[in-house]
Amino acid sequence: MSTPVWSEVRASMTLERDLFVDGAFVPAASGERFATVDPATGDVLAEVARGADEDVDRAVAAARRSFEAGHWSRADPAERKRVLLAVADLVDAHRDELALMESLDGGKLVRDTHAWDVPGTAAILRWYAEAVDKVYGEVAPTGRSSLALVTREPLGVVGAVVPWNYPLEMAMWKLAPALAAGCSVVLKPAEQTPLSALAFARLCAEAGLPDGVLNVVTGFGAEAGRAIGLHEDVDAVAFTGSTEVGKLFLGYSAQSNLKQVWPECGGKSANLVFADAGDLAAVAARAAAGVFFCTGQVCSANSRLLVQRPVVDELLDLVRREAEALRVGDPLDERTDLGPLVSLEQRTRVLGHVDAARATSRLVTGGGVPAGLPEQGAYVQPTIFADVSPTDPLWAEEVFGPVLAVTPFDTEEEAVELANRSRYGLAASVFTDDLRRAHRVSDALVAGTVTVNGVDAIDVTVPFGGFKQSGYGRDLSLHALDKYTGLKTRWFHL
Ligand code: NAD
Description:
The chain is an alpha/beta fold. It has helices at 6-12, 53-69, 77-93, 95-106, 110-131, 167-181, 195-207, 221-230, 243-255, 280-292, 309-325, 344-358, 393-396, 412-420, 435-444, 479-483, and strands spanning 19-21, 24-26, 33-37, 44-49, 138-139, 146-154, 157-161, 184-188, 214-216, 236-240, 260-264, 270-273, 304-308, 362-365, 383-386, 403-409, 424-425, 427-431, 449-452, 467-468, 485-493.
């Protein structure tokens, strides 16, 4: 397939700017708007409706009405499948503009959004659409004098609050299983990246999703996000974002209606490289991809590299060369490897972590802003610190930027202990050629996903989520359907 001409796609692209409530685009009740900015240039892309309490009330009411009307929640699974497959086809048909929108709004490389994010979104939708008419209930073994049917019922109104690093895909991790299960949803995209969620809502309407089943309220976390968390008529919140905000949602639930909350939060994933890992150049390429992909704004990024002492110098040098070879620049240029961070605020945060780390660790490369790029672009150099101790802030804190912390270890036991010394437990990687070691270490690591001889393995077929303060929500796989359904038992005395 030939690469689209992005200037032409941009010229024909429609940006929705209003909230999507009950099947229509409407301004916020307050009439207020906020700017969403292209982080590569600092240019304002659109002034988007600033939703708050009243708008969330309206969206939740529409979701509740649609849920109770039953056009979706009680529709045959095969009918929900038909509509969701039609939405997926429309996502594919609008691939170019969605990919460009995602790149402009979040600074993501357009080659990635076009190759992965948008097709991945359609694939997730199709997978859940195809799954939903294959989920069976149970007949409980109660004895012959009674019959007990156990069924999975759609849960009700779900609030989905998502981050900016994969705006469309993160939303789809929630929306696809929730909609397939028959729930109605109020989605709040991150304030940095509201555009693709609104475009997706338009496609849902076009595909025939009944009004009120999907509502999108754009706005700020402390306003629209908080209002969803505190709402008395939201049955569950599926959240992806930082651990701090995940904790707030648990508090909102406690202060309101005890809604279920599934937090999918941050990470500080360890990558353990043993001296028997084999081809170190190949390991270095993967280690670099593991931390620098998407400019480090990946929750499962392998931001801690633990290397067995005999190979630490060689591997560090190879990873440094990988980092220095990365081309930082315009996300619309197909040759770019590293685009900007999502915003200048995020860059200030990342550089703050870097400056703090200078006092305790050895800067190997990067550490600043690359030259020759737009001044208002949120660019930062791929950065590596060596000799990072487990007592350093850089060991503990999620940077969410292209910053790698490298630490040597001597024994397998020490490596596992160091890797597990974290408040997070989202993901980990192990590089070794020893099968027994691979089994032992992957078993001992406290992480939701452990990848052996690779980084960041994710697929719709397997659950994704963490342990400890990475949260306990699990997205993807058939297990995700459990979150959006409640078990119901019906007894028949015979
Ligand atoms: P964030 O927690 O700041 O924001 C996430 C969402 O919560 C946004 O929609 C935001 O508007 C909303 N929000 C913010 N403050 C709020 C408040 N006071 N009340 C209610 N809602 C509020 O996170 P972010 O900066 O957008 O994303 C980065 C974080 O997301 C990182 O910690 C990263 O690890 C995490 N993340 C986790 C996963 C995962 O699957 N575990 C995936 C992607 C990102």
